[in-house]
Amino acid sequence: MFHLRDEKLAIPVVLLAGIVWSFGPLVVRYMDEPGLVPWQYIFGRGLTIFIIINVYLFLDEGKRFIENYKNIGLSGFVGGIGLGIAMMSFIWSITHTTAAVTLLCLATMPFITAILAYFFLKETISVNVWISIAIATLGILIMALGKTDSSYIFGFIFGILSSIGFSVFSVSLRWRKSTPKFTTVA
Q1: Nearest residue to 34 via CA among 121, 94, 117, 112
Q2: pLDDT tens across 38-54, in order?
Q3: Which residues contact 97 (CB under 8 A, 6 or more apart)?
Q4: Helical spans, DSSP H, in 121-176
Q5: Which residues of 87-116 are buried (b: 16+ CB within 10 A; e: fewer)?
Q6: Whose CB has fewer CB within 10 Å in the chain, the N or C terminal residue?
Q7: For residue 34, what pLDDT is reported?
Q8: How many angstroms separate the Cα of 110 from the Cα of each of 42, 55, 61, 104, 181?
Q9: Contact 117, 176 (CB under 8 A)
Q10: pLDDT at 86
Q11: H-type alpha helices, the chain
Q12: What angle is formed at CA 69 by the lines to CA 43 and CA 58, rounded to 5 degrees?
């Protein structure tokens, strides 16, 4: 069995994953008529992630990784739904607006996560952070809503929905810390 928890490999693997993951907008932008095949792209992307994570879990834990699916619970279910909404909304956003607007919407994720954690996990947010959230939100709205084309606004709305989905996923991971993280992603 492989030793998959080698700390010397962790940073390069995470960096490589980030680099590979960042090609998502580029792939969608260079697709011929991406608006015609979003569900096929979402399905292929989701299936690839599911297979890779389950292969990793199998190599790391053997056949007992299946037990993780039984231990997901409500927090894992909510996190999985949030992540699914985020993935689907991301593709819908990037096929209906520019990559810059989609990624600008994803930049709201820390703010949304902080607000959700404030309400659901009872975490505190300092006054300085509230002021930063307000100023950044105003700036994002000014930049993103510069165009009023309906397709552009549709993409913006789905970009914000994607950010909310990722935030729900993040908060769900902190909600019940015993929830199997990789299984929630799968």
Answers
A1: 94
A2: 777 778 878 888 888 88
A3: 151, 152, 154, 155, 156, 159
A4: 127-144, 150-175
A5: bbbbbbbbbbbbeebbebbbebbbbbbbbb
A6: N
A7: 65
A8: 24, 30, 32, 12, 19
A9: no
A10: 92
A11: 7-21, 24-29, 38-61, 66-70, 73-96, 99-106, 109-120, 127-144, 150-175, 181-185
A12: 80
Look at residue 119 in the predicted model and tell me its pLDDT: 93
Nearest 5°: CA angle at 81, between 123 and 66? 105
pTM above 0.85, yes or no: no
Residue 8 CB burial class (10 angstroms; 0-12, 13-18, ≥19):
exposed
Instruction: Tell me the residue type at 15.
Output: L
Q: How many residues are there in the chain?
A: 186
Q: Which residues does the chain have with pLDDT short of 50?
A: 1
d(CA 156, CA 40): 22
Tokens of 83: 């992540």
pLDDT for position 2 = 53
Q: Compute and round to an integer the Cα radius of gyration of the chain.
A: 18
Q: Tokens 């053997």 — which residue?
A: 62
Phi, psi of 32 (to 5 degrees): -80, 115
Give the tokens for residue 3. Answer: 């030793």
**Cα distance between residue 71 and residue 4, in whole Å:** 22
